[in-house]
Backbone:
């Protein structure tokens, strides 16, 4: 475990895979696996169902279905142990199986990512602790891509912002701590937002405790050598609290990948679409069909839905998709036809006269890759077609109009009429709420009168159960009444003792960070704003404040550009907020900037020297989105990564993927006053 | 100085040596034959207890008291455990020197680190009824054989889970043994049971008969590396076979009538047969050698040899290690042997030294290596020095030589010699030391309270020393009789500023000793907030525990404290406690939503969070089993908020919700259709679809639905029921609050171009171009043309001409000419 090795996502995947299989191997003989639904997807990313079978897994059940049977002596539960509800469910099922079955069973529980005191206590109280083998499956980050790490905690958003339960933050800190253990300390931790602050504090805290833990745990003999020194490969960690930038989530993503997520949804790199759109899956089962995600075995779910739905794997193994995913949807059609033409001409080349045998052989060798590309082309053309239908729809355009107006800073009252119309037309509630929340977020809350008006409309249009929805959205901070008295507070940052604004002054920030770019070029992007056709996500602008100071300075204030350019680029080497303190003070939440130094300055120095003073070294910045990240933001960050050149690498890490529907959905009441 | 080969014994083509480790080990009065003796692996401590099956001389009351005595290999008493807890059936050690005592009722007591109190667990699986017969231990677990021939395995001592293995056939178990999991192909423990004439192999899944014929086997033993099995047959032969029962390697006939009392492995290639005072060492191919002792002896097998313990001596019997044999064997001409000779010549100042060096010049580096390795195998410090000197001499002649091995060996030997000293009594061989690792050796020193030695060695080897300090402090807390303040002061003074000290462990020791106050004081020095929590809970400092848990950021800890707190104190003070701590409150709320709604209600009531309380009732209304109950809950929800003006809109909404259900129930009665559960807009829509305009209007006025919304609902409802007549009627209307465009759009998308077109002329706010487009969408080119003509748009007409066909084409052409004329 060399602390100087560069961060490699495949190591993480490999380790998770090995750990899980080792745990499975530890249980002798055939076994039934009961898995929590939200874990099935992530686990499916690194281990196939067929592999599980090789390790003795007979059937897979979902914990939520409560239907594990007693066909195998060994029963294994794989679940997260942080919430009492999950633990209770497992205890109940163990009791049920024990009651119903005639034979003796061996129960094992693998807690993800750690065994908790609470789980032990609950198991003890329910009287099953004595009879289960408890182990930990330390799965924290799951790489979705080489440069995208996710904790895949689906509940993180609602936990952090609605329930104010910091579990997700703590686990994120644990995960980052593990990264530090293998990579060395993050030399600098930067961040913005209340929760970013607590995450940074936890990291500092954990680091202080690390020494003691390492040496007082005799089983961890190898950690003794871990004297934390700053990493030579990672430059900084940038924590973005989702709360700092809700609008970006609420806007409709306009990149290809973003639109697929908005329309069909992407879960663990897979989207599920009607097979009438793409045609049925090829006769041989595609890899994702056998993966753990879809491993619910015939016993668990009727096969009916899979006949109508087809799962499509969306990741960088699909070469074509890699070119398309981050492009603005407006140009996807052009890209597709270009590829189609190239394929055609490549294919036609076989008709060329007097080919030699060698040339023919070469052509035949390439055939499989042609076919793969062609198949992928076919899928993406039909997907794009379907998306086109959506984007050309009247409703979509209406919604987009509202969004663009709000993002550009137009007077919100101009869009009220459209929102009312959408409610009257029974447009989906999430869409309506996204617009209302967007208005609230960019203008520091809705006017009390407007808010009451819209509440009434929504309650009448969608049912009175949404009283709870509004309460929840207010708790999250997505839809709040404007506090007129507090309006003065952010004009004078000194008035606030903590020095942190409580509401973002969007009008000012929009201007100082140029959040809206009018002359955006979608086909040849010249700014990150292309991902929303004009709006530049604040979260990514914040990252630019650290990594692309000269560019941003020039963009926001062309006159000072020469001065900014004359600065040597090394000035930004370790990254800080310098130059943007004023605008940061107007953005909600405290600003984080912590430097981490090693205990032993000499050792750090030595390591640096060994690394050749960073001369040819690729420097990595990790951008951690606490509370979720959208595909559009990832696209923007990938764009920046391209701009930064070879010497610097961006890695996106997050608690989970998110989109507007999930954010708003966290607060939505799902039940209604139905007659029972 | 005796010759190095004096203790050597030839067995077949190998040499074995017997090294005397310690003399006058035990009190001469101790009758060792009456004791059960077992030793910890890696030359660890030895436990003795009196075998109750044997008679012994009566020595008054005092001696009748039963104890388990733990001694070092040199006989030093480390600890005496008074025993009154039932019949001991087995005594064993784990790799980390945990003593395990198994009584016949299936209770296992583990005594960790030679000092502490025991932690018990029960074997279960019928151990209580059938009784434990015997146990076999390996480095990290053991297997117990019960009276009914069931076998129960325990594979770890942290959270032990006794596991019942497959059942063996009935019959007397003549002898048995286990193959540790690390050496079996299945990676789970295998038990070999000699029953009747054969041997059964039992693991978790099955019991397999190996179909042997030569039984019953009086003894069965597995070699330290798990590859071989030694069996003692009925006709007093020793067989050595492979552990998969496939190959037979050798056979030896002892020719002794009395069966031996023990059969053990000595390393991996020799077997020892022991009678009371006679010992046969059987090497490969049945070669053997005999040893005799003056008194009764016990065998303590280890990984690379066997210790022989009598009342007087402790010997180590092992195969002579290869480098040692190479150097010392009589007549050896190996380079290493020559090098040693060269050293002797050098010490005699004889020129032959150089001749020797010249002789082995080509293999000198190898000679140095062998001497270094041979030094490691020596117990005599004199010979260690000789060999190292020889190596040093040899290496001085070499131009290039990497001295790392040499340096490491000198370090290791210093440590080994220190711990072999009789007062410490750990006669580790070099191989054992390497396998044990220096870290675990430190643990053993600390367990023997050899703190100073442990510190010295740790500093010498650059090992962390925090464990040593902590152990010292814990021992201090347990045994010191001075007042608590000075103990605390002394400990803090000694430990402060040392890296990585865990005060929590010291505090826990104090707490276990019943010194609660001292524990709390010590705990304050613990830098890790989270670690303090469990102990704080134990000493009853719940609110400090809660604060520390919050400080640690670990929500699991917070939740854990809260669960304990809630059980312990009245609800009102529980709420008071969490009230001032927002994190605690959110965690309580977050878990109570799933688990305990009543608690949540009380919490909201106590904190006067009315809106939350009201919302909780709304949520309950949503899950209510019937509408009546739901309405009651809604009423209660409204009541909570009624007396405050700021909640007026909320109250109004709650009342509207009740009103809506009343309306809907009435509709259901009149129209025998489901309405309950729909929203206001959906209700109106459904009424219109069913043709109940009047009722829909009633809903609109009752709930003050805005005119625009109502029109939209009506339009969509009418379109969906294809009520073209009504829609045609509406097109004659003068004004629409939502304009006429939506009518066109909705009707067109429903596919009725005729009705849709009726609305085109009404869209007066649109441009001509847009209207032309609308006509075209309805397929009415002529109408589009008229529109263009009205606007006198020549270009548009030309465009239309291209699209038109049939009569429409004529129309358009006519219009073009009309336009030309008009100019």
Residues:
């Amino acid at each position: 475990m060399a602390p100087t090795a560069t961060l490699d996502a495949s190591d993480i995947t490999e380790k998770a895979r090995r750990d899980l299989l080792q745990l499975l191997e530890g249980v002798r003989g055939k076994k039934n696996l009961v898995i929590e639904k939200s874990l099935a997807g992530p686990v499916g990313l690194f281990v196939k169902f067929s592999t599980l079978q090789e390790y003795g897994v007979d059937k897979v059940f979902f914990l939520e279905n409560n239907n594990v049977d007693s066909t195998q002596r060994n029963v294994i539960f794989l679940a997260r142990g942080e919430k009492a509800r999950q633990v209770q469910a497992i205890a109940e099922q163990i009791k049920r199986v024990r009651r119903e079955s005639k034979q003796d069973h061996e129960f094992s529980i693998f807690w993800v990512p750690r065994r908790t005191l609470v789980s032990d206590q609950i198991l003890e109280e329910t009287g099953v602790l004595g009879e289960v083998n408890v182990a930990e499956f330390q799965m924290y980050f799951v790489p979705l891509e080489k440069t995208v790490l996710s904790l895949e905690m689906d509940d993180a958003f609602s936990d952090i912002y609605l329930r104010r339960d910091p579990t997700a933050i703590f686990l994120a800190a644990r995960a980052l701590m593990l990264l530090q253990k293998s990579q060395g300390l993050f030399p600098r931790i930067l961040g913005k937002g209340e929760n970013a602050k607590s995450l940074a504090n936890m990291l500092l805290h954990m680091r202080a405790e690390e020494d003691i833990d390492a040496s007082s745990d005799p089983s961890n003999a190898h950690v003794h050598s871990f004297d934390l020194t700053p990493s030579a490969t990672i430059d900084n960690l940038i924590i973005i609290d989702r709360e700092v930038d809700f609008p970006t989530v609420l806007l409709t993503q306009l990149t290809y990948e973003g639109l697929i997520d908005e329309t069909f949804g992407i879960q663990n790199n897979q989207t599920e679409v009607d097979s009438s759109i793409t045609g049925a899956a090829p006769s041989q089962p595609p890899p994702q069909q056998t993966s753990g995600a879809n491993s619910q075995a015939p016993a668990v779910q009727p096969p009916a839905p899979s006949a109508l739905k087809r799962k499509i794997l969306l990741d960088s193994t699909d070469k074509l998709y890699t070119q398309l995913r981050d492009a603005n949807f407006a140009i996807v059609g052009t890209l597709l036809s270009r590829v189609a033409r190239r394929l055609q001409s490549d294919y036609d080349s076989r008709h060329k006269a007097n080919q030699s045998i060698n040339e023919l052989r070469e052509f035949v060798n390439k055939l499989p890759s042609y076919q793969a590309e062609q198949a992928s082309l076919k899928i993406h053309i039909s997907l794009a077609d379907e998306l086109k239908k959506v984007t050309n729809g009247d409703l979509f355009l209406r919604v987009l109009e509202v969004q663009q107006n709000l993002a550009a800073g137009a007077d919100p009252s101009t869009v009220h009429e459209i929102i009312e119309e959408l409610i009257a037309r029974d447009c989906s509630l999430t869409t309506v709420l996204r617009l209302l929340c967007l208005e609230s977020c960019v203008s520091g809350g809705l006017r009390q009168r407007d808010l009451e008006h819209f509440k009434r409309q929504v309650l009448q249009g969608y049912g009175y159960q949404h009283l709870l929805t509004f309460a929840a959205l207010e708790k999250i901070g997505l839809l709040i009444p404007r506090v007129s008295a507090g309006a003065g507070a952010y004009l004078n940052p000194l008035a606030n003792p903590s020095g942190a604004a409580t509401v973002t002054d969007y009008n000012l920030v929009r201007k100082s960070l140029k959040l809206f770019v009018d002359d955006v070029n979608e086909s040849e992007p010249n700014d990150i704003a292309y991902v929303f056709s004009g709006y530049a996500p604040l979260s990514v602008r914040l990252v630019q404040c650290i990594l692309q100071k000269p560019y941003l300075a020039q963009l926001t204030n062309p006159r000072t550009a020469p001065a900014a350019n004359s600065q040597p680029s090394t000035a930004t080497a370790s990254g800080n907020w310098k130059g943007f303190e004023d605008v940061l003070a107007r953005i909600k939440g405290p600003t984080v900037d912590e430097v981490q130094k090693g205990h032993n300055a000499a050792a750090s120095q030595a390591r640096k020297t060994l690394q050749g003073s960073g001369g040819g070294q690729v420097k990595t910045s990790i951008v951690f989105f606490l509370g979720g990240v959208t595909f559009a933001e990832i696209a923007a960050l990938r764009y920046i990564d391209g701009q930064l050149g070879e010497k610097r690498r961006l890695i996106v890490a997050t608690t989970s993927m998110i989109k507007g529907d999930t954010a708003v959905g966290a607060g939505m009441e799902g039940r209604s006053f139905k007659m029972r | 100085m005796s010759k190095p080969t004096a203790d050597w014994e030839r067995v077949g083509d190998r040499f074995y040596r017997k090294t005397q480790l310690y003399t006058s080990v035990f009190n001469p009065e101790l009758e060792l034959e009456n004791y059960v003796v077992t030793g910890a692996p890696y030359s660890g401590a030895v436990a003795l207890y009196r075998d109750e099956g044997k008679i012994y001389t009566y020595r008054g009351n005092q001696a009748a008291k039963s104890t388990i005595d733990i001694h070092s290999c040199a006989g030093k008493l480390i600890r005496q455990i008074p025993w009154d807890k039932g019949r001991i059936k087995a005594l064993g050690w784990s790799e980390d020197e945990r003593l395990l005592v198994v009584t016949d009722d299936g209770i296992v007591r583990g005594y960790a680190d030679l000092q502490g109190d025991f932690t018990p667990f029960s074997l279960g699986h019928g151990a209580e009824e059938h009784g434990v017969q015997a146990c076999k231990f390996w480095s990290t677990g053991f297997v117990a054989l019960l009276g009914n021939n069931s076998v129960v395995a325990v594979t770890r001592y942290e959270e032990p889970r006794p596991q019942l293995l497959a059942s063996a056939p009935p019959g007397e178990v003549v002898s048995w043994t286990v193959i540790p999991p690390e050496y079996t192909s299945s990676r789970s423990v295998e038990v070999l049971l000699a029953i009747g004439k054969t041997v059964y192999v039992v693991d978790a899944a099955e019991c397999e008969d190996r179909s042997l014929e030569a039984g019953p086997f009086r003894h069965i033993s597995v070699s330290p590396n798990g590859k071989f099995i030694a069996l003692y047959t009925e006709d007093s032969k020793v067989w050595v076979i492979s552990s998969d029962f496939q190959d037979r390697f050798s056979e030896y006939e002892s020719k002794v009538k009395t069966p031996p009392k023990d059969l053990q492995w000595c390393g991996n290639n020799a077997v020892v047969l022991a009678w009371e005072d006679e010992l046969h060492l059987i090497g490969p191919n049945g070669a053997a050698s005999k040893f005799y002792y003056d008194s009764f002896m016990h065998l303590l097998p280890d990984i690379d040899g066997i210790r022989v313990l009598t009342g007087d001596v402790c010997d180590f019997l092992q195969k002579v290690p290869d480098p040692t044999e190479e150097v010392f064997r009589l007549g050896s001409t190996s380079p290493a042997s020559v090098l040693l000779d060269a050293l002797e010549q050098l010490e005699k100042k004889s020129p032959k030294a150089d001749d020797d060096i010249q002789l082995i010049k080509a293999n000198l580096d190898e000679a140095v290596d062998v001497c270094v390795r041979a030094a490691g195998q020596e117990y005599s410090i004199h010979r260690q020095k000789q060999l190292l000197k020889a190596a040093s001499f040899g290496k001085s002649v070499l131009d290039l030589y990497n001295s790392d091995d040499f340096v490491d060996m000198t370090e290791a030997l210093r440590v080994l010699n220190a711990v072999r000293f009789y007062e410490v009594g750990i006669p580790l061989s070099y191989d054992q030391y390497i396998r044990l690792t220096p870290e675990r050796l430190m643990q053993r020193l600390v367990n023997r309270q050899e703190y100073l030695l442990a510190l010295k060695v740790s500093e010498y080897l650059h090992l962390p020393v925090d464990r040593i300090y902590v152990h010292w402090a814990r021992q201090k807390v347990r045994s010191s009789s001075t007042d608590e303040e000075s103990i605390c002061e002394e400990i803090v003074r000694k430990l402060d500023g040392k890296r990585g000290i865990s005060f929590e462990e010291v505090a826990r020791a104090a707490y276990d000793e019943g010194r609660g106050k001292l524990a709390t004081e010590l705990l304050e020095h613990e830098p890790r907030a989270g670690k303090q929590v469990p102990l704080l809970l134990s000493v009853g400092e719940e609110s400090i525990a809660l604060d520390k848990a919050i400080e640690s950021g670990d929500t699991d800890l917070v939740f854990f404290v809260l669960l304990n707190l809630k059980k312990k104190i009245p609800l009102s003070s529980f709420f008071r406690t969490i009230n001032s701590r927002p994190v605690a409150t959110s965690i309580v709320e977050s878990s109570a939503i799933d688990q305990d709604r009543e608690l949540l209600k009380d919490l909201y009531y106590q904190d006067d969070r009315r809106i939350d309380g009201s919302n909780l009732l709304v949520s309950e209304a949503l899950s209510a089993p019937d509408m009546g109950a739901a309405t009651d809950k809604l009423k209660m929800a409204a009541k909570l908020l009624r007396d405050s003006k700021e909640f007026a809109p909320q109250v109004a909404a709650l009342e509207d919700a009740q009103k809506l259900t009343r309306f809907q129930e009435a509709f259901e009665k009149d129209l025998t259709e489901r309405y309950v559960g729909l929203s206001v807009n959906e209700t109106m829509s459904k009424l219109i679809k069913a043709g109940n305009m009047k009722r829909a209007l009633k809903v609109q006025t009752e709930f003050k639905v805005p005119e625009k919304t109502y029109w939209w609902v009506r339009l969509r409802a009418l379109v969906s029921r294809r009520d073209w007549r009504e829609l045609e009627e509406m097109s004659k209307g003068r004004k629409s609050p939502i304009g006429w465009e939506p009518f066109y759009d909705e009707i067109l998308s429903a596919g009725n171009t005729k009705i849709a077109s009726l609305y085109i002329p009404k869209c007066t706010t649109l441009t001509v171009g847009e209207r032309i487009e609308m006509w075209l969408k309805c397929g009415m080119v002529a109408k589009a043309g008229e529109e263009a003509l009205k606007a006198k748009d020549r270009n548009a007409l030309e465009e239309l001409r291209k699209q038109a066909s049939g009569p429409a084409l004529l129309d358009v052409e006519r219009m073009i000419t009309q336009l030309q004329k008009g100019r």
Residues 217-226, 283-306, 485-498, 561-573 of chain A have pLDDT under 50 and may be disordered. Chain A touches chain B through 69 residues (CB under 8 Å).
